[in-house]
Design goal:
By secondary structure, this protein is α+β, with helices and mostly antiparallel strands. It contains two helices and 17 strands. Strands 3, 5, 8, 10, 11, 13, 15 and 17 form an eight-stranded mixed beta sheet that branches. Strands 4-9-6-7 form a four-stranded antiparallel beta sheet, with no helix packed on it. α1 packs antiparallel against α2.
Length: 334
Amino acid sequence: MKTKLMTVAVLMILFNNMVQAEWNSVRPGEEAETPAPNPAGEITNLTAEEVEKAKNEEDRKRFEEAAKLLEAETKRIAEEEAQRQAEEEEKRKAEEARANDYPELSLTMAKAFFLCKEGAHYTFSYYPEVSGWHIFQTYGPSDTVMEIYHNGESIVNEGKSDGDDGDNYNELQHKYLEAGERYVIQVYLEDKSDVGEAILNVRLQEHLNDLDTPLTLGFAKKFWLSTDDYDQTHFTTTFTPETTGRYNIETYSADEDTVMEIYHPDGYSMVASGESDGDRGVDDEELQVKTFEAGKTYTIQVYMEDFDNDGYAWVHVWRSPWHPLNCSLSKKCY
């Protein structure tokens, strides 16, 4: 806004200087320094009065042109300012609506909650910052049901709200979401008379071209594993936490059996003997819960259990205030 005001001021100064310069070029009672030739080529001597009259007419035209320029610039600045104010008002209303919305899901910390009365449910909103494939997953001992709404319509495939695609009777939904849009996620118990607890986590699948970058909290890496290709028999990545605490390291695959190793910065495996293929995730997948120290880099390696298998697999790191394997409260997360 300050720049626009300065623009108008500069235009006005230039305009005033231009008019003043023209007014001072010839004064009443003076003759023109150089006679102007007429169309016949003859030199005509003009009186001071005639020169002044011609200059006044020329000044008037210049004044009108400058006034039009000033008016156009003022109008443009006013329109830009009106547009800016409208955008700010729209943003303010969106922020106000978002503040009054359901509790928001985050990629960095899962939601944990109790469902302890008939018909009880928990509803959350989610505003993706990046367009892409997102995975919503519930954890816990109860049979949960999940709905995902966009513009009032469910985007969960028919019959899949209680598809039990997660671990045991939990849910796992894989959906492509648009950045900046509002999505509403609702979780409740299949048996309305039951009592239970649950964890709801969301993660974003990174692009396949991002395999060489370290893991980011809440982002999943998708990769291909094949026992026929030595270069793809395993996938190795790293993770450096910003905060010391408990982290959940999880794999997921296309109906295959994955194995996971987690190596401490000092080089030794943090996975207990026999637990690299502990199958504590979905079906034959892995879920390890480890305490990581801030600023230290941990190495995670994923490969197939069976040597005749191949397919896509995912690995991601996420956090929760409750332990995902038994839903116990963690005192290390905050």
